[in-house]
Design goal:
The complex is a heterodimer of chains A (104) and B (156).
Chain A lengths: L4 E8 L2 E8 L22 E8 L2 E8 L8 E7 L6 E8 L4 E7 L2
Chain B lengths: L28 H5 L4 H5 L3 H9 L5 E2 L3 E4 L3 E2 L5 E7 L4 E8 L6 E7 L3 E9 L5 E9 L2 E11 L7
The chains are: A mainly beta (104), B mainly beta (156).
Chain lengths: 104, 156
């Protein structure tokens, strides 16, 4: 399965800036299929977790109002170059994905 | 912009289980999913969502919260929003689109090493305030910025 997360983690002084782009339809469940008139079922990421060296840095809870193919950025302190960052998401259908990236 | 707004919760909370996990320790996605604040995300007003999330109705206006978002968003499906909180002890940042059916878009729980900053893109149904609510040292603060949404058309 193709990885749905592209992320970059760059260190400047003591602060690591994380930028990530996730591939996900983020369907609210309110849109209707134009051909059938049926509501397209809700399918959106509910949780995003970022861990540094196994310790949780950030946990985001989302609803369907985050845009399709979500972009996020956040920052944290205390990492060193070469440390591993792990970003994971889980959606309302129980699907999930995660990616790891070295901090540069 | 006059920011003097106080959000008061009327009556009791929607649910008794307002268990706020303050990001302690390692949490697997499964365990976290069980705690997804459904009532907050389904709440139809900012006040109700705040009550479901923080268990308290008061969010004092604060000049220490900076919201970066376009004055006019050409595409309501993709509105970039960044929130920076300048007070100390920030524990979480929540982003609301006041004009959406369910205003809460996201709740960001920040661990002790995280900087008080988040940036993302949200969907906005129509022109309205983007409201950022910050919990710091157990107190709740808010700021708002109006974003005009044009769906095609000439703007304004």
């Amino acid at each position: 399965m193709a990885n749905t997360i592209k992320m970059r983690a760059s260190l400047s002084g003591d602060v690591t800036t994380v930028k990530a782009l996730m591939k996900h339809p983020m369907e609210t469940g309110l849109r209707k299929d134009k051909k059938t008139g049926e509501a397209i079922p809700a399918h959106f990421i509910q949780e995003v977790v970022c861990e540094h060296n196994g310790k949780q840095v950030m946990l985001a809870e989302w609803g369907g109002s985050i845009s399709q193919n979500p972009y996020i950025s956040f920052m944290f302190k205390g990492a060193k170059a070469g440390d591993t960052l792990k970003l994971s998401w889980t959606d309302n259908k129980g699907e999930s994905d995660s990616a790891e990236e070295a901090i540069k | 912009m006059n920011m003097k707004r106080r959000v008061f919760l009327k009556g009791a909370l929607a649910s008794g289980t307002v268990a706020l996990a303050l990001g302690a320790g390692i949490v697997t996605p499964r365990a976290v999913l069980a705690a997804w604040p459904k009532s907050a995300f389904e709440a139809k007003s900012v006040a109700d969502a705040l009550g479901a999330l923080y268990g308290s109705g008061d969010a004092a206006a604060s000049g220490d919260i900076e919201i970066k978002a376009p004055d006019i968003a050409e595409n309501g499906a993709v509105v970039p929003v960044s929130v920076t909180a300048k007070m100390s002890g920030v524990e979480s940042i929540s982003i609301f689109a006041e004009g959406n059916n369910s205003p809460l878009t996201s709740n960001w729980k920040l661990g002790p090493d995280a900087e008080p900053y988040v940036s993302t893109r949200i969907k906005m149904a129509k022109t309205s305030n983007v409201i950022a609510v910050v919990q710091a040292n157990g107190k709740t603060f808010q700021a708002a910025k109006e974003v005009k949404v044009t769906i095609g058309g000439c703007g304004g």
